[in-house]
Amino acid sequence: MDEQLVAVCSPNLQSKPTLSKSEEILDHALIQHTTRPYLWKEWFQNFDIKTNKSAVGPRFEYYAHIIQAAIAGIGIALLPEFLIQEELKTKKLILANNNSIKGNGSYYFAYPYEQEENPAVISFSNWLKVNRKTHKPN
């Protein structure tokens, strides 16, 4: 599965429904992922935005912490969309901007060959296939 990255924030963080221009994101703290320190740089480069602020902001190691920081209104987070479907659905998080970028990597489901008949593996594999087909990036 490919990764679609979206900029999200708490609904309380911004006065407009979405920031119409990607540059407006720079008016807020950029929540950073310590193990993926270049995500924001890639985001701004994708939209031809020159800035030296792409690496500035609070840093968290785990996506769960980044999600909670964004919900708390600390700043804007750049996250894989599939990780925050529930938060978007319940409006705990909103898209800060309607733009998204494709991440550099992909996610794979792998298991040992001898587990191919395992009911749990089969069930999870089927669940992934259904959810992958029904997931439509914004």
Explain how this protein is built.
The protein has 138 residues and is an alpha/beta fold. It folds into two domains: 2-105, Periplasmic binding protein-like II (D-Maltodextrin-Binding Protein, domain 2), CATH 3.40.190.10; 108-138. The protein is built from four helices and five strands. It has helices spanning 39-46, 63-71, 85-89, 119-134; strands at residues 2-9, 30-33, 59-60, 76-80, 94-106. Strands 3-2-4-1-5 form a five-stranded mixed beta sheet, with helices on both faces. The longest helix has 16 residues, at 119-134. It is elongated. It starts with a strand and ends with a helix. The model has no long low-confidence stretch (mean pLDDT 87).
Top keywords for this entry?
138 residues; alpha/beta; D-Maltodextrin-Binding Protein, domain 2; 2 domains; five-stranded mixed β-sheet; 4 helices; 5 strands; 23% strand
Protein topology:
Blueprint: E1 2-9, E2 30-33, H1 39-46, E3 59-60, H2 63-71, E4 76-80, H3 85-89, E5 94-106, H4 119-134
Parallel strand pairs: 2-3, 2-4
Antiparallel strand pairs: 1-4, 1-5
CATH architecture of the largest domain: 3-Layer(aba) Sandwich
Low-confidence segments, ≥5 residues, pLDDT <50?
A: none
Number of strands: 5
Q: So what's the overall shape? A: elongated
- Kindly state the mean pLDDT as a whole number? 87
What's the CATH H-level homologous superfamily of the largest domain?
Periplasmic binding protein-like II
Largest sheet: 5 strands, mixed
Tally of individual helices:
4
How many domains make up the coordinates? 2
CATH class of the largest domain: Alpha Beta
Global structural class: alpha/beta
Helical residue percent? 25-40%
Instruction: Evaluate the radius of gyration.
Output: 17 Å
Strand content: 15-25%
